[in-house]
Each structure stands twice: as C-alpha cells, then as structure tokens.
Amino acid sequence: MSSPTLFERIIAREIPSEIVYEDEHYICIKDIAPKAPIHLLVIPKKVSARVDEITDPNEMGQLWLTATKIARQQAPDYRLLVNCGEGGGQVVFHTHIHILAGWEGGPDSD
Ligand code: 5GP
C-alpha cells in the first residue's frame, strides 16, 4: 500500500491546515504559501495523482462545480488553476484545483 499523500494527511487532520470548506467528497484549505491575497486549494477526498487521471465526467464536473461554488463565495472574480505533472508545475501529487483571487487590479496588476 502506498503511503498517504500530504493532502490525505491534511484531510485526516494529521497535519494542520486552515479549512474553509468541507463536505463528504471535497475539502478546501488555505494554501500554506499564498501566491494571491486569496489562495485556496480544492481537493477531492478520492485520491488521484493528477487531474487527467479523472475519467468520469460526473466526477470531473462535480470537482469544478465545487471549485466555482467556493470561489464565488470568496470573490466575484477569480482564477482557477491546475498544475498537471512535474513539467506543469505540480508539486503535490494528489489532484487539486487552485483558487486565486483578491487582487486590487486583477491578477497581473503587480
Ligand atoms: P501544486 O504545485 O502541486 O499545484 O500545488 C501544491 C500547493 O500546495 C502549493 O501551492 C503549496 O504552497 C501548497 N502546499 C504545500 N504543502 C502544503 C501544506 O502542508 N499545507 C497547505 N495548506 N498547503 C501546502
């Protein structure tokens, strides 16, 4: 059996995090190293290493619907981001969607 992912350990409360949303299938936490004034991670509890391992359209749809629901509760406008694979900038191999928001003048205003 493979060892639990970092996010599984967060879901299990073995590692502390700031949880902003949780239901039966998803958890949303604040990113530990925020790259925007609001930086959240939406994480399915069902483990897949990367987003393109999800082949069920319902599962993929529910993940995105959950992310947009949470994002809209945080800010009127936002960016959703998925890093896929090392070459795509993925560091934690447990599928997640980044929610980035809260800039004064948009994401490229700095
Ligand atoms: P990735 O590059 O895999 O798409 O993004 C992984 C994200 O997880 C990064 O933005 C990183 O800051 C965040 N992260 C890494 N370790 C932890 C942690 O222990 N707690 C939280 N809340 N976020 C983490």
TrEMBL record:
Annotated HIT domain ranges read 6-110
UniProt short sequence motif Histidine triad motif, positions renumbered to this chain: 94-98
Extract the SUPFAM superfamilies matched here.
Answer: HIT-like
InterPro entries per UniProt: Histidine_triad_CS, Histidine_triad_HIT, HIT-like, HIT-like_sf
Pfam families named among the record's database cross-references: HIT
Protein known as: Purine nucleoside phosphoramidase
Species this chain originates from: Deinococcus xinjiangensis
